[in-house]
Amino acid sequence: MKIKDITNYLEELAPLSYAEDFDNVGLLVGNYATEVAGVLVTLDTLEETIDEAIAKNCNLIVSFHPIIFGGLKKLNGNNYVERVVLKAIKNDIAIYATHTALDNTHLGVSAKMCEVLGIKNPQVLLPKKNIIKKLTTYIPFAQANNIREKLFEVGAGKIGNYSNCSFNMEGKGSFKGNENSNPVVGNTGELRFEEETCITFIFESYLESKILQTLYKYHPYEEVSYEIITLENYNQNIGMGMIGELPSAITEDAFLKLVKKKFKTGCVRHSNKLDKKIKKVAVLGGSGSFAINNAIQQKADAYISADFKYHEFFKAENKILLTDVGHYESEQFTKNLLVEYLSKKFTKFAVILSEKSTNPIYYF
To answer: Which residues contact 223 (CB under 8 A, 6 or more apart)?
Structure first.
């Protein structure tokens, strides 16, 4: 089993195109062709994480946070990032990071937070834009059904809970090949009119290469006519954060106690209590102050995230209970999610949950 086999599977869960523009995801250290001895799953990759991988005979670390975030201009070991990368390279250990690619998937970080809290029927809080594309192509009438089915098989035409979605329109296409052409129908230099089906599909952007390969493979024409555009539509199943409901409404104090217990935190920072029951809850792993207004607009009673600054608590405006559980605490279950996902697929080598806490924050 090669590293590429593992990363391909991870990217079915969290396609790299889901990641935010500022992020650095994918294989950060190592070679895709390397054979895998074992996988260590962690939230962060530190020097002690490399040591743990060595001790457990794991030559691939799957990390949530990327150890290389900005550009590295030198590798002298002068800071913890450089030391981690140097140690990984010296010991032939690859590092792969998922970060916001996993944040944005509906089975990712926020979904795991909902599972831990028992939140029912969670929906995406901030649906993501610009990851839906539309393909329009023109196919000879006789081959249209076959090519349509082949494109469906590789993911074209999937909308939420529906698959095999397309729009079809019949008409006549025209073409005239020059002296270098080799037309499938008609003759060189001849103006030809052909009965064709215009088929339109939407698809997620990460599937583009696979869809085009399939189109070229099965389309009969020497020159394949098609167009692809990026849509402004939101994808309701992909995006940051989630919102859903607790099994029953509880008091604010009971809610805060539940959050503190479930997220195993020494401190829960929160905005002013409003003396109302908590039922509808929004969550977002990591730094989530940017979604406070979204949680309010969707009528959440409470919003759980991390890294709220002093003035950001004022944004509650007596409309919502803002709850800061800590960055590490909000994301701590992510590595369990990744282990569960990988263990179902790969059984020929160990997929190990890191035993090390990489939380840099302590409570007194």
So the answer is: none
3-state SS, residue 95: strand
Domain count, the chain: 3
Is residue 253 located within the same domain as residue 217? Answer: no
Residue 111 CA to residue 106 CA, distance in Å, equals 6
Considering the domain architecture, whether residues 226 and 246 belong to the same structural domain is answered as no
Same domain, 122 and 143: no
Annotated binding residue 103:
yes
CA distance 353 to 351: 7
Q: Are 105 and 13 in contact (CB under 8 A)?
A: yes
Cα 261 to Cα 288: distance, rounded to the nearest angstrom: 20
Q: Distance between CA 227 and CA 87 in Å, rounded? A: 47
My answer on whether 191 and 56 are in the same domain is: no
- Give the model confidence (pLDDT) of 125-180 as tens digits: 999 988 899 999 999 999 999 999 999 999 999 988 899 999 999 999 999 989 89
Asked if 166 and 200 touch (Cβ cutoff 8 Å), the reply is: yes
Q: How far apart, in whole angstroms, are the C-alpha atoms of residue 291 and residue 173?
A: 49
Q: Burial level of 182, CB count in 10 A (0-12/13-18/19+)?
A: exposed
Could you report the per-residue pLDDT of 20-40, keeping only the tens digit for each?
999 999 999 999 999 999 999
**pLDDT number for residue 129:** 86
218, 152: one domain: yes
Is 219 among the annotated ligand-binding positions? no
How far is C-alpha 126 from the geometric centre of its chain's CA atoms?
13
| Tally: H helices and E strands in the chain | 11, 15
Q: Say which CATH number the domain at 136 has.
A: 3.30.70.120
Residue 253, annotated as binding a ligand = no
Can you give the residue range of the structural domain that contains 305? 109-127+239-330
Q: Find out whether 311 is annotated in a ligand binding site.
A: no
